[in-house]
Predict the structure of Alpha/beta fold hydrolase.
Amino acid sequence: MFCVPHAGAGPSSYAHWVSELPEDVELCLVHLPGREARLAELPLDDITVIAQRVVRACVDLLDLPFALFGHSMGALVAYETARRLPVQPRRLFVSACPPAHRLVEEPPVAHLPDDEFLTEVRRAYQGIPDEVWQDSALMRMMLPALRADFAAYETYEWIPRAPLTCAVTALGGAADALVPPRSLADWAELTEGECAVEVFDGGHFYLTQARHQVQAMVTAALLSGDSLAATCPNPDRGGQA
């Protein structure tokens, strides 16, 4: 299962998943430039370009059935990646993200000066812990990737194409004001496969507090049919984009 992190985040956002999912499911953590071990690289600010890079990183690892999981902006990247892969995933998990063809337009913030930009991010998303906000050096390191990711999301344009054929599971938080649970069902319009909706307690970053419940649901979905795995002997190497 290839996992794509949310805006500004790196593969460590799924660190706990590596040891907590069963051995039948192997994780490949997508590592985008501009964060964590790739901090010195220039971050990407275009969803299409990001998806193309993820495709190139994944294409040699598709010899076994596989799935994609993305949270928030990462869900949009996972969806656009699935549209471009030569083989469809067995299942696409899209978490805390409105359907790609019905994104809610919010006032753009990526262009704002640093202080104003971070204020808006903190006000709207509340996904960064207080101790991170209080570490000015860490915030300076995170800022380029965070700003690039917001720019990528704000400039994304959905282009009609043939629908996916894979199953889709849309996940969300019951108290997510950014992505109301009622909007998740419209992901069904983007695939010819089945579409399930799963809602958990919490807001936009429900994934942190409901991690174990989400993992149990993901595991059940993946192992309900043929055993799924993704060949990724070295997740850091195989998942770089």
